[in-house]
Amino acid sequence: MLQIDIGVKVTQLRKELGLSQEKLAAYADIAVSTLRRIECGKSNPTLETLQAVAAVLDTTVDQLIR
């Protein structure tokens, strides 16, 4: 399922960068609860949200959804 795949990738990249969920959410200017739902595969993030998260994780939306 795409939601779960995105969540796994976000979690992996976040941890590789040594970021907490709180820090990533703050840098991406999204709510921590939104990030948690993304990482758990319980949310369909908007393109804007994915772009913000990808930018902080130094990747692209394309890489997150592959």
Describe the structure concisely.
This protein is mostly helical and 66 residues long.
Coarse morphology: globular
Strand content: under 5%
> Terminal Cα separation, in Å?
11 Å
Mean pLDDT equals: 94
**Helix content, binned percent:** 55-70%
Stretches where pLDDT is under 50 for at least 5 consecutive residues are none
Order of helices and strands: HHHHH
Say how many strands there are.
0
| Count of alpha/pi helices | 5
- Based on CA atoms alone, the radius of gyration comes out at 10 Å
SSE-based structural type: mainly alpha
Largest sheet: none
Structure, explained:
With 66 residues, this protein is mainly alpha-helical. It has helices at 2-16, 21-28, 32-39, 47-56, 61-65. It is built from 5 helices and no strands. The chain starts with a helix and ends with a helix. Helix 2 crosses helix 3 and helix 2 packs across helix 4 (47-56).
